[in-house]
Amino acid sequence: MKEVLHQKVVDHLTFIYPDLEIEPIAQELVHTMRLDEDCQSPLAHKNLWDQTDIAVITYGNSIISDHQPPLKTLHHFLQAHFPMLINTVHILPFFPYTSDDGFAVSAYKQVDPPLGDWNDILRISTDFHLMADLVINHCSSRHEWFVNYQEGREPGVGFFVEADPKEDLSAVVRPRVTPLLRPTTTPEGTKHVWCTFGHDQVDLNFANPKVLAKIVDIIRLYLDMGVRVFRLDAVAFIWKKLGTNCLNLEETHEIVRLLRTLIEHANPNAVIITETNIPNQENLSYFGNANEAHCIYNFSLPPLLVNTLVTGNCRYLKNWLMGMPPAQNGTTYFNFIASHDGIGLRPVEGLLDDSELEALIQTMENFGGQISWRALDDGSNKPYEINISLFDALKGTIAGEDDWQLRRFICAHAIMLALEGLPAFYLHSLMGTTNDYERMKEHGHNRAINRRQWHEQELDDVLADPDRHHHHVFQHLRKLIQLRREQPAFHPNATQFTLHLGDQVFAFWRQSLDRRQSIFCLNNISDTPQTIHLNAINLIGTDQWKDLISEATFDDMLSTVTLDPYQTLWISNRW
Length: 575
Prior knowledge:
It is built from 17 helices and 27 strands. With about 575 residues, it is α/β, with parallel strands linked by helices. A hairpin with a 5-residue loop joins strand 20 (about 495-500) and strand 21 (about 505-510). The chain is globular.
């Protein structure tokens, strides 16, 4: 097995570095991962998940208390409120950083002291599958490597991408409006270094195998610290080649394949998730042939679902779902509808027309949302993402605010929970957190609007108070999560077909891997009641059928059922 692994590593490296001597690099990587001592055998096309897998996404300090580090408080909160419900926790970058709320990492091998320490991380990893960020495209401008680069020392020299500002870089795709190159003083004079995301986030030079070796060393530490799920942040941008858009290049895909080979031979139960906030077809390419990412973020889902619920028309969402390929065994979608960033707009390029997108943006601004921009090659700017809490994003429709906010919000999550893939809840969605304008003003950037920091006692109080919407959100979502976990038809790789019941009912059928359970998921995405003929969804007459949510039964296959505004039915033949 070790010989086979070694050859696979050599093959990956030969593609990435065709002009270098590969053998020493391969030996170093295998040794760093300790695969020359203990090499395990991953099984191809093995599903590392089932319907019981539910993730929560949170910052390490989203919940704080007066008497302990935030990581201990987070651990306590999850244990207290989600026993046997949430089994995976994604703690957003918990390392020392200088900006971008953690994504400008200044020390990869440390836990940010205000959050806690590695022992806190290890304790969380014993109770939950721990997901952590591998911030792979860039590091902080105050990281030791960049400081050394500026002073001509190792490690650091050759670690960053240099470019001549006279070169034509207009084809480079970026999610920001800041200048791409940062002038930097070095012992060799002024150099211009590549900064995809901003001048405090300096891009690492993967064309230098020493950089790759450092990243592999970090991966080994994270495995030792209990990380099971690796989120490859901004991975689509990591390889640069002049004359291209520097996005999704073949070398990038090969690096992902290499990292998967190394990680899964160290831990066959480890999972790689690629974070690629790009158009849908490009995003899908990171599955490879079930040899790259185990999971890809389903980035088109959040904007399409929000658009569906504020327009009361599911045509665009339904067309997208019909075009999504079933994931091969061993791969699946990572479904989310809210995140620490915002509602990305690049993933709906080619899916929503301009007028629909314009109406969505205007509606979100009416509900208090902010717009972040990206630069185009002609010098103009284009909307990149909408920054808003999901609860506020669904406070009404394109016609304005209404009384259906809670029902609309629960409907959105019921859809996410039932779709093919692994569902992931942003922590703030679980309690219906609203726009935080004070935090946005304090931090000076739009994304802070959806990054509230709760005090644990205050949060416990509002979740227990039936007069607060937080309580009702929390209870509804807990019930839906529990129901999902009990249904084999909601396995992430179970069969899924889109149903055609008009533009106001978004519907699809799920069937368990053993074909014993079927669930017809009917969602009224409008603010008016919708009546459906049961024979339109082909309920098998010899089976007994029940809505898992309301527990209503259906005996007459020729009858109709009326869905209230934003009501969801999970009609199943097994319960």
